[in-house]
Amino acid sequence: MKTAVSVAALITAASAQFYNITSKPFQIHLRSEDGSVDDTVSACHTGAAIESLCLSNSNTTSKPDPTPYDTFNFNSSIYSQPIAGTNFGTPGILTWVVPASPPIPSSVQFFYDPSTNSALPLLFPGDQSPQTLYFDDQDQLTVVSYVDWSANPPQSANPVGLQRWYACKTYYLGYQYENLVWGLGEATPENPTCVPVKVKRVFV
């Protein structure tokens, strides 16, 4: 574990220069339209220096008790600009610091399993392969697409903000949590536990 932490720290130091503008800390709130989900997000251990974005008050095999919410940051770059004519804000990455010694800055990547139609956002050390995200003018977490996949053939399109977020019970490397999940495509995830949610940041 100590070796893994040391390697992660070196990787982080080598790549931390691009996303060099850090927002104020914030909570992440999840809420479903029917009210069945109304919770904050915690970083839950999912491997060596890897965390998932689990629901703070969920009760699952790997997290039987409520946990305090965590605070996150949004890191952007001096080279990034908002998309003109939209309310998407500046692109950046969702970050969190692992409370290790030394601390390990981490960022969200999407983990894809080709056997299903949802992706699991996970916090990995550094920012080598982060998922680009946006917060719109309502502070809601958004993914932006520039491709119309419904066209024949698919073609470039004006930027569209997508919010295909779900709260789902998940399984990853033996860990079972209720996590924030991203739906792939317009269809509802095949995971029967998934509930669509809005994801909003609340500054602390």
What is this structure, in a nutshell?
The protein is mainly β.
Question: What would the principal axes of the Cα set say about the shape?
Answer: globular
CATH class: Mainly Beta
Do you know the CATH architecture?
A: Trefoil
Termini Cα gap:
32 Å
What is the total number of structural domains?
Answer: 1
What can you tell me about this protein's structure?
This protein is mostly beta strands. It has a single domain, classed as Trefoil (Acidic Fibroblast Growth Factor, subunit A) (Trefoil), CATH 2.80.10. It is 7% helix and 46% strand. The chain has one helix at residues 2-15, and strands spanning 21-22, 26-31, 38-47, 50-55, 73-76, 93-98, 104-112, 118-125, 134-135, 141-148, 155-162, 165-172, 175-183, 195-196, 198-203. The strands form two sheets. Strands 1, 2, 3, 4, 5, 6, 7, 8, 12, 13, 14 and 15 form a twelve-stranded antiparallel β-sheet that branches. The longest helix is centred in the first third of the chain and has 14 residues, at 2-15. The chain is globular, with a radius of gyration of 17 Å. The protein starts with a helix and ends with a strand. Mean pLDDT is 93; it is low at 1-5 and 7-15.
Record the SSE blueprint.
Layout: H1 2-15, E1 21-22, E2 26-31, E3 38-47, E4 50-55, E5 73-76, E6 93-98, E7 104-112, E8 118-125, E9 134-135, E10 141-148, E11 155-162, E12 165-172, E13 175-183, E14 195-196, E15 198-203
Antiparallel strand pairs: 1-5, 2-3, 2-15, 3-4, 4-8, 5-6, 6-7, 7-8, 8-13, 9-10, 10-11, 12-13, 12-14
